[in-house]
Amino acid sequence: MALIWTTIIVAIVIYMFNKLLNIKNRKKLPPGPWGIPILGHLHLIGKNPHQDFARLAKKYGPFMHIQLGLVPTIVASSPETVEKVLKTYDHVFASRPHHEASQHVCYGQRNLIFSKYGSYWRNMRKLCTLNLLSSQKINSYQPSRKEEVSLLVKSIKRAAHEHVAVDLSANISSLNANLSCLMVFGKKFMDEDLDKRGFKSIVQEVVHLAATPNLGDFFPFLGVLDLQGITGRLKALSKVFDEFLEKIIEEHVQSKEHRETKDFIDTMMEIMQSGEAGFEFDRRHVKAVLLDMLMASMDTSATSVEWILTELLRHPHVMKKLQKELEEVVGLDRMVEESDLENLNYLDRVIKEALRLHSAAPLLVHESIEDCIVDGFFVQKGSRIIVNVYAAQRDTNAWPEPDKFLPERFVESSVDLLGHDFQLLPFGSGRRSCPGMQLGIIIVRLMVAQLVHCFDWELPNGMQPSELDMSEQFGVVTCRAKHLMAIPTYRLQL
Ligand code: HEM
Protein backbone atom coordinates (compact mmCIF):
# COMPACT_ATOMS: atom_id res chain seq x y z
CA MET A 1 0.00 0.00 0.00
CA ALA A 2 2.81 2.37 0.95
CA LEU A 3 4.38 1.68 -2.43
CA ILE A 4 1.20 2.61 -4.28
CA TRP A 5 0.87 5.89 -2.31
CA THR A 6 4.51 6.76 -2.97
CA THR A 7 3.96 6.06 -6.65
CA ILE A 8 0.87 8.27 -6.78
CA ILE A 9 2.65 11.12 -5.03
CA VAL A 10 5.66 10.86 -7.37
CA ALA A 11 3.24 10.89 -10.34
CA ILE A 12 1.51 14.03 -9.03
CA VAL A 13 4.85 15.80 -8.49
CA ILE A 14 6.04 14.93 -12.03
CA TYR A 15 2.71 16.02 -13.48
CA MET A 16 2.75 19.39 -11.69
CA PHE A 17 6.39 19.90 -12.66
CA ASN A 18 5.57 19.26 -16.34
CA LYS A 19 2.61 21.64 -16.14
CA LEU A 20 4.78 24.36 -14.63
CA LEU A 21 7.42 23.85 -17.30
CA ASN A 22 4.80 24.13 -20.07
CA ILE A 23 3.33 27.31 -18.58
CA LYS A 24 6.80 28.78 -18.26
CA ASN A 25 7.81 27.92 -21.79
CA ARG A 26 4.42 29.05 -23.19
CA LYS A 27 4.70 26.89 -26.27
CA LYS A 28 1.57 26.88 -28.39
CA LEU A 29 0.19 23.36 -28.32
CA PRO A 30 -2.41 22.09 -30.81
CA PRO A 31 -5.98 22.41 -29.54
CA GLY A 32 -7.36 19.68 -27.30
CA PRO A 33 -9.77 18.98 -24.46
CA TRP A 34 -9.10 19.81 -20.81
CA GLY A 35 -7.45 16.92 -19.03
CA ILE A 36 -7.49 15.84 -15.42
CA PRO A 37 -4.38 15.64 -13.25
CA ILE A 38 -2.28 12.50 -13.67
CA LEU A 39 -4.61 10.70 -16.08
CA GLY A 40 -4.64 13.52 -18.62
CA HIS A 41 -7.22 12.24 -21.11
CA LEU A 42 -6.92 8.51 -20.52
CA HIS A 43 -10.43 8.51 -19.05
CA LEU A 44 -11.86 9.71 -22.41
CA ILE A 45 -10.69 6.59 -24.20
CA GLY A 46 -12.92 3.57 -24.21
CA LYS A 47 -13.05 0.23 -25.96
CA ASN A 48 -12.75 1.72 -29.45
CA PRO A 49 -10.10 4.48 -29.20
CA HIS A 50 -10.16 5.19 -32.97
CA GLN A 51 -13.84 6.15 -32.68
CA ASP A 52 -13.26 8.13 -29.47
CA PHE A 53 -10.40 10.09 -31.09
CA ALA A 54 -12.54 10.72 -34.19
CA ARG A 55 -15.34 12.13 -32.00
CA LEU A 56 -12.88 14.38 -30.13
CA ALA A 57 -11.32 15.54 -33.43
CA LYS A 58 -14.74 16.74 -34.62
CA LYS A 59 -14.70 19.15 -31.68
CA TYR A 60 -10.99 20.04 -31.36
CA GLY A 61 -9.77 19.69 -34.94
CA PRO A 62 -7.70 17.29 -37.06
CA PHE A 63 -4.39 18.09 -35.32
CA MET A 64 -5.20 17.61 -31.67
CA HIS A 65 -3.17 17.52 -28.48
CA ILE A 66 -4.06 15.18 -25.66
CA GLN A 67 -2.18 13.83 -22.68
CA LEU A 68 -2.12 10.07 -22.11
CA GLY A 69 -0.86 9.78 -18.55
CA LEU A 70 2.58 11.40 -18.68
CA VAL A 71 2.86 11.05 -22.45
CA PRO A 72 2.06 14.10 -24.60
CA THR A 73 0.16 12.86 -27.62
CA ILE A 74 -0.80 14.31 -30.98
CA VAL A 75 -3.65 12.82 -33.00
CA ALA A 76 -3.81 13.51 -36.76
CA SER A 77 -7.24 12.81 -38.20
CA SER A 78 -7.62 14.38 -41.67
CA PRO A 79 -5.81 13.51 -44.92
CA GLU A 80 -4.04 16.90 -44.77
CA THR A 81 -2.72 16.49 -41.21
CA VAL A 82 -1.86 12.83 -41.85
CA GLU A 83 0.22 13.97 -44.84
CA LYS A 84 2.06 16.37 -42.52
CA VAL A 85 2.86 13.50 -40.14
CA LEU A 86 3.71 10.76 -42.63
CA LYS A 87 5.31 12.84 -45.38
CA THR A 88 6.40 16.37 -44.47
CA TYR A 89 7.65 15.45 -40.97
CA ASP A 90 8.12 11.71 -41.54
CA HIS A 91 11.83 12.02 -40.65
CA VAL A 92 10.87 13.40 -37.22
CA PHE A 93 7.84 11.19 -36.49
CA ALA A 94 9.10 7.81 -37.74
CA SER A 95 10.06 6.36 -34.38
CA ARG A 96 8.04 4.13 -32.08
CA PRO A 97 7.20 4.80 -28.43
CA HIS A 98 8.32 2.59 -25.57
CA HIS A 99 6.16 -0.53 -25.71
CA GLU A 100 6.17 -2.52 -22.53
CA ALA A 101 4.83 -5.67 -24.23
CA SER A 102 7.47 -5.84 -26.95
CA GLN A 103 10.21 -5.23 -24.39
CA HIS A 104 9.37 -8.66 -23.02
CA VAL A 105 8.10 -10.62 -26.01
CA CYS A 106 10.29 -9.13 -28.75
CA TYR A 107 13.71 -9.44 -27.14
CA GLY A 108 13.95 -5.88 -25.79
CA GLN A 109 12.19 -4.21 -28.77
CA ARG A 110 14.77 -5.75 -31.15
CA ASN A 111 12.03 -6.46 -33.67
CA LEU A 112 11.25 -4.33 -36.70
CA ILE A 113 7.68 -3.33 -35.88
CA PHE A 114 8.45 -1.70 -32.52
CA SER A 115 12.08 -0.73 -32.92
CA LYS A 116 13.05 2.90 -32.48
CA TYR A 117 13.91 4.89 -35.61
CA GLY A 118 17.64 4.80 -36.20
CA SER A 119 20.40 2.78 -37.79
CA TYR A 120 19.30 -0.55 -36.27
CA TRP A 121 15.74 -0.16 -37.62
CA ARG A 122 17.08 1.01 -41.02
CA ASN A 123 19.42 -1.99 -41.35
CA MET A 124 16.82 -4.47 -40.18
CA ARG A 125 14.13 -3.09 -42.47
CA LYS A 126 16.48 -3.26 -45.45
CA LEU A 127 17.47 -6.80 -44.56
CA CYS A 128 13.82 -7.92 -44.29
CA THR A 129 12.69 -6.10 -47.42
CA LEU A 130 15.50 -7.53 -49.54
CA ASN A 131 15.64 -11.04 -48.15
CA LEU A 132 12.19 -11.93 -46.86
CA LEU A 133 9.67 -9.76 -48.66
CA SER A 134 11.11 -9.31 -52.15
CA SER A 135 8.91 -10.07 -55.19
CA GLN A 136 11.03 -13.13 -55.91
CA LYS A 137 10.54 -14.49 -52.39
CA ILE A 138 6.80 -13.74 -52.47
CA ASN A 139 6.48 -15.59 -55.80
CA SER A 140 8.31 -18.60 -54.39
CA TYR A 141 5.39 -19.14 -51.98
CA GLN A 142 2.79 -19.12 -54.74
CA PRO A 143 2.43 -22.95 -54.82
CA SER A 144 1.73 -23.11 -51.08
CA ARG A 145 -0.85 -20.31 -51.36
CA LYS A 146 -2.56 -22.24 -54.17
CA GLU A 147 -2.50 -25.50 -52.20
CA GLU A 148 -3.82 -23.97 -48.96
CA VAL A 149 -6.60 -21.99 -50.64
CA SER A 150 -7.69 -25.15 -52.52
CA LEU A 151 -7.84 -27.06 -49.22
CA LEU A 152 -10.11 -24.38 -47.77
CA VAL A 153 -12.38 -24.47 -50.83
CA LYS A 154 -12.62 -28.27 -50.53
CA SER A 155 -13.63 -28.09 -46.90
CA ILE A 156 -16.24 -25.38 -47.59
CA LYS A 157 -17.54 -27.47 -50.49
CA ARG A 158 -18.38 -30.23 -47.98
CA ALA A 159 -20.37 -27.71 -45.89
CA ALA A 160 -22.08 -26.52 -49.09
CA HIS A 161 -23.15 -30.10 -49.80
CA GLU A 162 -24.84 -30.26 -46.40
CA HIS A 163 -26.14 -26.69 -46.72
CA VAL A 164 -24.83 -25.71 -43.29
CA ALA A 165 -23.35 -22.39 -42.15
CA VAL A 166 -19.56 -22.13 -42.01
CA ASP A 167 -17.61 -19.99 -39.59
CA LEU A 168 -15.92 -17.79 -42.19
CA SER A 169 -13.90 -15.87 -39.59
CA ALA A 170 -12.37 -19.04 -38.16
CA ASN A 171 -11.69 -20.55 -41.59
CA ILE A 172 -10.05 -17.40 -42.92
CA SER A 173 -7.95 -17.04 -39.79
CA SER A 174 -6.83 -20.67 -39.93
CA LEU A 175 -5.84 -20.39 -43.58
CA ASN A 176 -3.80 -17.27 -42.87
CA ALA A 177 -2.11 -18.88 -39.89
CA ASN A 178 -1.12 -21.79 -42.15
CA LEU A 179 0.19 -19.48 -44.87
CA SER A 180 2.24 -17.50 -42.36
CA CYS A 181 3.67 -20.60 -40.68
CA LEU A 182 4.63 -22.17 -44.01
CA MET A 183 6.40 -18.98 -45.04
CA VAL A 184 8.16 -18.36 -41.72
CA PHE A 185 8.83 -21.89 -40.41
CA GLY A 186 8.44 -24.03 -43.52
CA LYS A 187 5.62 -26.07 -41.98
CA LYS A 188 2.15 -25.74 -40.54
CA PHE A 189 1.56 -26.05 -36.84
CA MET A 190 -1.13 -28.07 -35.24
CA ASP A 191 -2.76 -26.48 -32.26
CA GLU A 192 -0.93 -28.51 -29.65
CA ASP A 193 2.52 -27.82 -31.14
CA LEU A 194 3.32 -24.69 -29.18
CA ASP A 195 1.85 -25.44 -25.81
CA LYS A 196 -1.09 -27.42 -24.48
CA ARG A 197 -3.24 -24.28 -24.84
CA GLY A 198 -2.68 -24.36 -28.60
CA PHE A 199 -0.62 -22.42 -31.13
CA LYS A 200 -3.34 -20.00 -32.22
CA SER A 201 -4.61 -19.27 -28.73
CA ILE A 202 -1.07 -18.42 -27.54
CA VAL A 203 -0.47 -16.12 -30.51
CA GLN A 204 -3.85 -14.50 -29.90
CA GLU A 205 -3.10 -14.01 -26.21
CA VAL A 206 0.17 -12.24 -27.02
CA VAL A 207 -1.58 -10.06 -29.58
CA HIS A 208 -4.35 -9.28 -27.08
CA LEU A 209 -1.91 -8.40 -24.28
CA ALA A 210 0.20 -6.32 -26.65
CA ALA A 211 -2.90 -4.24 -27.39
CA THR A 212 -4.10 -3.93 -23.79
CA PRO A 213 -3.33 -0.42 -22.48
CA ASN A 214 -0.42 -0.96 -20.08
CA LEU A 215 0.08 1.61 -17.30
CA GLY A 216 3.83 1.24 -17.85
CA ASP A 217 3.44 2.76 -21.33
CA PHE A 218 1.80 5.91 -19.96
CA PHE A 219 3.60 6.15 -16.61
CA PRO A 220 7.04 4.70 -17.42
CA PHE A 221 8.12 4.54 -13.77
CA LEU A 222 5.13 2.27 -13.05
CA GLY A 223 6.36 -0.34 -15.54
CA VAL A 224 8.43 -2.24 -12.98
CA LEU A 225 5.48 -2.49 -10.57
CA ASP A 226 3.31 -4.32 -13.11
CA LEU A 227 0.14 -3.27 -11.28
CA GLN A 228 -2.10 -4.93 -13.91
CA GLY A 229 -0.14 -8.17 -13.99
CA ILE A 230 0.27 -7.85 -17.79
CA THR A 231 4.06 -7.96 -17.73
CA GLY A 232 4.07 -11.15 -15.69
CA ARG A 233 1.80 -12.85 -18.19
CA LEU A 234 3.86 -11.55 -21.11
CA LYS A 235 7.09 -12.84 -19.56
CA ALA A 236 5.53 -16.29 -19.15
CA LEU A 237 4.31 -16.27 -22.77
CA SER A 238 7.65 -15.05 -24.08
CA LYS A 239 9.28 -18.05 -22.40
CA VAL A 240 6.88 -20.40 -24.21
CA PHE A 241 7.60 -18.67 -27.51
CA ASP A 242 11.33 -18.63 -26.96
CA GLU A 243 11.44 -22.37 -26.31
CA PHE A 244 9.30 -22.99 -29.37
CA LEU A 245 11.48 -20.79 -31.60
CA GLU A 246 14.69 -22.33 -30.25
CA LYS A 247 13.36 -25.82 -30.96
CA ILE A 248 12.37 -25.07 -34.51
CA ILE A 249 15.55 -23.10 -35.28
CA GLU A 250 17.56 -26.05 -33.98
CA GLU A 251 15.57 -28.43 -36.21
CA HIS A 252 16.46 -26.23 -39.19
CA VAL A 253 20.13 -26.04 -38.24
CA GLN A 254 20.37 -29.83 -37.80
CA SER A 255 18.37 -30.67 -40.93
CA LYS A 256 20.46 -31.75 -43.89
CA GLU A 257 17.43 -31.75 -46.16
CA HIS A 258 17.77 -29.40 -49.15
CA ARG A 259 14.70 -27.22 -49.38
CA GLU A 260 13.83 -25.78 -52.78
CA THR A 261 11.86 -22.91 -51.24
CA LYS A 262 13.73 -21.45 -48.31
CA ASP A 263 11.57 -20.40 -45.37
CA PHE A 264 12.33 -17.31 -43.27
CA ILE A 265 14.31 -19.31 -40.69
CA ASP A 266 16.61 -20.73 -43.40
CA THR A 267 17.16 -17.26 -44.83
CA MET A 268 17.75 -15.51 -41.49
CA MET A 269 20.06 -18.22 -40.16
CA GLU A 270 22.09 -18.12 -43.38
CA ILE A 271 22.55 -14.37 -42.97
CA MET A 272 23.46 -14.75 -39.30
CA GLN A 273 25.97 -17.52 -39.92
CA SER A 274 27.58 -15.72 -42.88
CA GLY A 275 28.22 -12.70 -40.64
CA GLU A 276 27.32 -10.53 -43.64
CA ALA A 277 24.47 -8.61 -42.03
CA GLY A 278 26.83 -5.69 -41.41
CA PHE A 279 25.29 -4.92 -37.99
CA GLU A 280 24.79 -6.74 -34.70
CA PHE A 281 22.67 -9.70 -35.71
CA ASP A 282 22.47 -12.73 -33.47
CA ARG A 283 19.86 -15.33 -32.56
CA ARG A 284 17.83 -12.81 -30.54
CA HIS A 285 17.44 -10.63 -33.63
CA VAL A 286 16.49 -13.64 -35.74
CA LYS A 287 13.82 -14.67 -33.23
CA ALA A 288 12.46 -11.13 -32.84
CA VAL A 289 12.03 -10.78 -36.60
CA LEU A 290 10.48 -14.24 -36.97
CA LEU A 291 7.85 -13.25 -34.39
CA ASP A 292 7.30 -9.97 -36.23
CA MET A 293 6.65 -11.67 -39.51
CA LEU A 294 4.29 -14.15 -37.90
CA MET A 295 2.28 -11.56 -35.99
CA ALA A 296 2.32 -8.94 -38.76
CA SER A 297 1.10 -11.27 -41.47
CA MET A 298 -1.40 -13.57 -39.73
CA ASP A 299 -4.13 -11.34 -38.41
CA THR A 300 -3.83 -8.33 -40.71
CA SER A 301 -4.64 -10.29 -43.88
CA ALA A 302 -7.30 -12.42 -42.13
CA THR A 303 -9.07 -9.39 -40.67
CA SER A 304 -9.01 -7.59 -44.01
CA VAL A 305 -10.59 -10.58 -45.81
CA GLU A 306 -13.16 -10.98 -43.02
CA TRP A 307 -14.31 -7.34 -43.37
CA ILE A 308 -14.37 -7.45 -47.18
CA LEU A 309 -16.64 -10.52 -47.10
CA THR A 310 -18.78 -8.84 -44.44
CA GLU A 311 -19.40 -5.87 -46.74
CA LEU A 312 -20.13 -8.20 -49.67
CA LEU A 313 -22.70 -10.09 -47.58
CA ARG A 314 -24.26 -6.76 -46.56
CA HIS A 315 -24.42 -5.67 -50.19
CA PRO A 316 -25.61 -8.64 -52.29
CA HIS A 317 -25.76 -6.54 -55.50
CA VAL A 318 -22.01 -5.83 -55.14
CA MET A 319 -21.35 -9.55 -54.54
CA LYS A 320 -23.31 -10.39 -57.75
CA LYS A 321 -21.42 -7.77 -59.75
CA LEU A 322 -18.10 -9.16 -58.54
CA GLN A 323 -19.19 -12.72 -59.39
CA LYS A 324 -20.10 -11.50 -62.87
CA GLU A 325 -16.62 -10.04 -63.32
CA LEU A 326 -15.08 -13.32 -62.15
CA GLU A 327 -17.27 -15.28 -64.58
CA GLU A 328 -16.18 -13.07 -67.46
CA VAL A 329 -12.46 -13.11 -66.64
CA VAL A 330 -12.04 -16.63 -65.23
CA GLY A 331 -15.14 -18.60 -66.30
CA LEU A 332 -16.95 -21.20 -64.23
CA ASP A 333 -14.88 -24.20 -65.30
CA ARG A 334 -11.76 -23.42 -63.28
CA MET A 335 -10.62 -21.74 -60.08
CA VAL A 336 -9.00 -18.30 -59.91
CA GLU A 337 -5.22 -18.23 -60.44
CA GLU A 338 -2.92 -15.52 -59.10
CA SER A 339 -2.26 -14.48 -62.70
CA ASP A 340 -5.96 -13.55 -63.04
CA LEU A 341 -5.83 -11.02 -60.21
CA GLU A 342 -4.46 -8.12 -62.24
CA ASN A 343 -7.46 -8.39 -64.62
CA LEU A 344 -10.06 -8.04 -61.88
CA ASN A 345 -10.76 -4.30 -61.71
CA TYR A 346 -14.01 -4.48 -59.82
CA LEU A 347 -12.40 -6.73 -57.21
CA ASP A 348 -9.80 -4.02 -56.75
CA ARG A 349 -12.49 -1.39 -56.13
CA VAL A 350 -14.36 -3.64 -53.69
CA ILE A 351 -11.17 -4.22 -51.70
CA LYS A 352 -10.23 -0.54 -51.61
CA GLU A 353 -13.69 0.44 -50.43
CA ALA A 354 -13.90 -2.25 -47.74
CA LEU A 355 -10.42 -1.41 -46.41
CA ARG A 356 -11.36 2.26 -46.41
CA LEU A 357 -14.22 1.48 -44.04
CA HIS A 358 -12.37 -1.20 -42.07
CA SER A 359 -8.64 -0.74 -41.92
CA ALA A 360 -7.04 -3.63 -40.00
CA ALA A 361 -4.94 -1.04 -38.15
CA PRO A 362 -7.18 2.01 -37.58
CA LEU A 363 -4.52 3.79 -35.48
CA LEU A 364 -0.82 4.06 -36.40
CA VAL A 365 1.37 4.80 -33.42
CA HIS A 366 4.64 6.69 -33.93
CA GLU A 367 6.92 8.85 -31.77
CA SER A 368 8.60 12.18 -32.32
CA ILE A 369 12.42 12.08 -32.09
CA GLU A 370 12.83 15.84 -31.68
CA ASP A 371 10.94 19.04 -30.85
CA CYS A 372 9.32 20.59 -33.90
CA ILE A 373 6.73 23.13 -34.99
CA VAL A 374 3.92 21.94 -37.27
CA ASP A 375 1.66 24.67 -38.69
CA GLY A 376 2.62 26.91 -35.79
CA PHE A 377 1.94 24.25 -33.15
CA PHE A 378 4.65 22.90 -30.87
CA VAL A 379 5.24 19.13 -30.83
CA GLN A 380 7.53 18.04 -28.05
CA LYS A 381 10.30 15.45 -28.51
CA GLY A 382 9.07 12.07 -27.23
CA SER A 383 5.43 12.83 -28.03
CA ARG A 384 3.32 9.93 -29.12
CA ILE A 385 2.05 10.63 -32.64
CA ILE A 386 -1.18 8.84 -33.49
CA VAL A 387 -2.45 8.73 -37.05
CA ASN A 388 -6.17 8.08 -36.98
CA VAL A 389 -6.52 6.17 -40.25
CA TYR A 390 -10.14 5.41 -39.39
CA ALA A 391 -10.97 9.16 -39.25
CA ALA A 392 -8.95 10.14 -42.36
CA GLN A 393 -10.58 7.36 -44.37
CA ARG A 394 -14.03 8.69 -43.42
CA ASP A 395 -13.19 12.39 -43.84
CA THR A 396 -16.21 14.11 -45.39
CA ASN A 397 -14.05 16.46 -47.49
CA ALA A 398 -12.27 13.54 -49.13
CA TRP A 399 -15.17 11.08 -49.29
CA PRO A 400 -18.79 12.06 -50.03
CA GLU A 401 -21.18 9.89 -47.97
CA PRO A 402 -18.18 8.42 -46.14
CA ASP A 403 -20.05 5.76 -44.15
CA LYS A 404 -21.56 4.12 -47.25
CA PHE A 405 -19.97 1.13 -48.97
CA LEU A 406 -19.70 2.31 -52.60
CA PRO A 407 -16.97 0.55 -54.62
CA GLU A 408 -18.05 2.62 -57.64
CA ARG A 409 -16.48 5.72 -56.07
CA PHE A 410 -13.13 4.38 -57.33
CA VAL A 411 -14.19 4.22 -61.01
CA GLU A 412 -12.81 7.60 -61.98
CA SER A 413 -10.30 7.77 -59.14
CA SER A 414 -6.55 7.25 -59.15
CA VAL A 415 -6.42 6.71 -55.37
CA ASP A 416 -4.53 3.51 -54.58
CA LEU A 417 -3.68 1.39 -51.53
CA LEU A 418 0.05 1.94 -51.69
CA GLY A 419 0.32 4.95 -49.38
CA HIS A 420 0.47 7.66 -52.06
CA ASP A 421 -2.90 9.05 -51.00
CA PHE A 422 -3.45 10.20 -47.45
CA GLN A 423 -7.20 9.56 -47.53
CA LEU A 424 -6.62 5.80 -48.00
CA LEU A 425 -3.87 4.25 -45.87
CA PRO A 426 -4.59 0.66 -44.81
CA PHE A 427 -0.85 -0.08 -45.14
CA GLY A 428 0.35 3.26 -43.76
CA SER A 429 2.70 5.52 -45.72
CA GLY A 430 6.29 6.75 -45.56
CA ARG A 431 9.23 5.24 -43.70
CA ARG A 432 7.19 3.02 -41.35
CA SER A 433 4.68 1.87 -44.00
CA CYS A 434 4.05 -1.84 -44.30
CA PRO A 435 6.96 -3.69 -45.97
CA GLY A 436 4.66 -6.72 -46.48
CA MET A 437 2.13 -4.71 -48.48
CA GLN A 438 2.70 -6.53 -51.78
CA LEU A 439 2.26 -9.93 -50.13
CA GLY A 440 -0.74 -8.74 -48.10
CA ILE A 441 -2.50 -7.47 -51.22
CA ILE A 442 -1.93 -10.75 -53.09
CA ILE A 443 -3.26 -12.86 -50.21
CA VAL A 444 -6.32 -10.66 -49.70
CA ARG A 445 -7.17 -10.52 -53.42
CA LEU A 446 -6.68 -14.25 -53.89
CA MET A 447 -8.79 -15.29 -50.91
CA VAL A 448 -11.68 -12.93 -51.64
CA ALA A 449 -11.69 -13.80 -55.36
CA GLN A 450 -11.65 -17.54 -54.67
CA LEU A 451 -14.38 -17.51 -52.00
CA VAL A 452 -16.69 -15.31 -54.08
CA HIS A 453 -16.01 -17.21 -57.31
CA CYS A 454 -16.46 -20.72 -55.91
CA PHE A 455 -19.54 -20.05 -53.75
CA ASP A 456 -22.78 -18.15 -53.45
CA TRP A 457 -23.26 -17.03 -49.87
CA GLU A 458 -26.35 -16.42 -47.75
CA LEU A 459 -26.73 -15.39 -44.13
CA PRO A 460 -27.98 -18.08 -41.71
CA ASN A 461 -31.41 -18.24 -40.03
CA GLY A 462 -33.05 -16.00 -42.62
CA MET A 463 -30.99 -13.01 -41.40
CA GLN A 464 -31.33 -9.94 -43.65
CA PRO A 465 -28.09 -8.28 -44.87
CA SER A 466 -28.99 -5.10 -42.97
CA GLU A 467 -29.21 -7.10 -39.72
CA LEU A 468 -25.56 -8.23 -39.85
CA ASP A 469 -23.74 -7.21 -36.66
CA MET A 470 -20.96 -4.77 -37.57
CA SER A 471 -19.40 -4.29 -34.10
CA GLU A 472 -15.63 -4.00 -34.01
CA GLN A 473 -13.15 -5.35 -31.51
CA PHE A 474 -10.22 -2.97 -31.22
CA GLY A 475 -6.77 -4.49 -30.83
CA VAL A 476 -3.38 -4.66 -32.56
CA VAL A 477 -5.71 -5.40 -35.46
CA THR A 478 -9.38 -4.45 -35.32
CA CYS A 479 -11.50 -7.41 -36.27
CA ARG A 480 -15.21 -8.24 -36.17
CA ALA A 481 -16.47 -8.57 -32.62
CA LYS A 482 -18.63 -11.54 -33.67
CA HIS A 483 -17.58 -14.29 -36.04
CA LEU A 484 -18.95 -14.06 -39.57
CA MET A 485 -21.19 -17.04 -40.35
CA ALA A 486 -22.66 -17.80 -43.79
CA ILE A 487 -24.12 -20.70 -45.78
CA PRO A 488 -22.23 -21.55 -48.98
CA THR A 489 -23.58 -22.97 -52.25
CA TYR A 490 -20.97 -24.28 -54.67
CA ARG A 491 -21.23 -22.58 -58.08
CA LEU A 492 -18.35 -23.81 -60.25
CA GLN A 493 -18.79 -26.43 -62.97
CA LEU A 494 -15.83 -28.64 -62.14
C1 HEM B 1 -3.56 -7.04 -45.50
C2 HEM B 1 -2.45 -7.24 -44.83
C3 HEM B 1 -1.66 -6.19 -44.10
C4 HEM B 1 -2.03 -4.95 -43.64
C5 HEM B 1 -3.40 -4.30 -43.76
C6 HEM B 1 -0.88 -4.36 -43.01
C7 HEM B 1 -0.85 -3.09 -42.45
C8 HEM B 1 0.25 -2.55 -41.82
C9 HEM B 1 0.27 -1.25 -41.19
C10 HEM B 1 -0.90 -0.28 -41.15
C11 HEM B 1 1.51 -1.06 -40.66
C12 HEM B 1 1.99 0.11 -39.78
C13 HEM B 1 2.36 1.37 -40.52
C14 HEM B 1 2.77 2.48 -39.56
O1 HEM B 1 2.96 2.26 -38.37
O2 HEM B 1 2.89 3.61 -40.02
C15 HEM B 1 2.28 -2.24 -40.95
C16 HEM B 1 3.59 -2.42 -40.57
C17 HEM B 1 4.29 -3.58 -40.77
N1 HEM B 1 3.87 -4.67 -41.50
FE1 HEM B 1 2.07 -4.92 -42.38
N2 HEM B 1 0.17 -5.24 -43.09
C18 HEM B 1 -0.26 -6.37 -43.75
C19 HEM B 1 0.49 -7.47 -44.07
C20 HEM B 1 1.80 -7.67 -43.72
C21 HEM B 1 2.59 -8.82 -44.06
C22 HEM B 1 2.09 -9.98 -44.92
C23 HEM B 1 3.82 -8.65 -43.49
C24 HEM B 1 5.05 -9.54 -43.52
C25 HEM B 1 5.07 -10.81 -43.75
C26 HEM B 1 3.81 -7.37 -42.80
C27 HEM B 1 4.86 -6.85 -42.09
C28 HEM B 1 4.87 -5.61 -41.48
C29 HEM B 1 6.00 -5.09 -40.71
C30 HEM B 1 7.31 -5.82 -40.44
C31 HEM B 1 5.64 -3.81 -40.29
C32 HEM B 1 6.48 -2.84 -39.45
C33 HEM B 1 7.27 -1.91 -40.35
C34 HEM B 1 8.10 -0.88 -39.58
O3 HEM B 1 7.77 -0.52 -38.46
O4 HEM B 1 9.11 -0.43 -40.16
N3 HEM B 1 2.57 -6.80 -42.96
N4 HEM B 1 1.50 -3.12 -41.66
Automatic annotation (TrEMBL):
**Cellular component terms, GO, for this chain's entry?**
membrane
Question: Where found, per UniProt?
Answer: Membrane
Q: Drop me one GO molecular function for this one.
A: monooxygenase activity
Q: Which cofactor does it need?
A: heme
Which InterPro entries does UniProt cross-reference here? Cyt_P450, Cyt_P450_CS, Cyt_P450_E_grp-I, Cyt_P450_sf
The residues forming a coiled coil are none
Q: Where heme is bound, by residue?
A: C434
Q: Does the keyword Secreted apply?
A: no
Q: Which keywords appear in this protein's UniProt record, sorted alphabetically?
A: Heme, Iron, Membrane, Metal-binding, Monooxygenase, Oxidoreductase
Tagged with keyword Transferase: no
Q: What job does the chain carry out?
A: May have a role in maturation, such as during flavor formation or other metabolite production specific to aging tissues.
Q: Which family does it belong to?
A: Belongs to the cytochrome P450 family.
What is this protein identified as? Cytochrome P450 CYP736A12-like
- Origin organism of this chain? Anisodus acutangulus
- Upper lineage ranks? Eukaryota, Viridiplantae, Streptophyta, Embryophyta, Tracheophyta
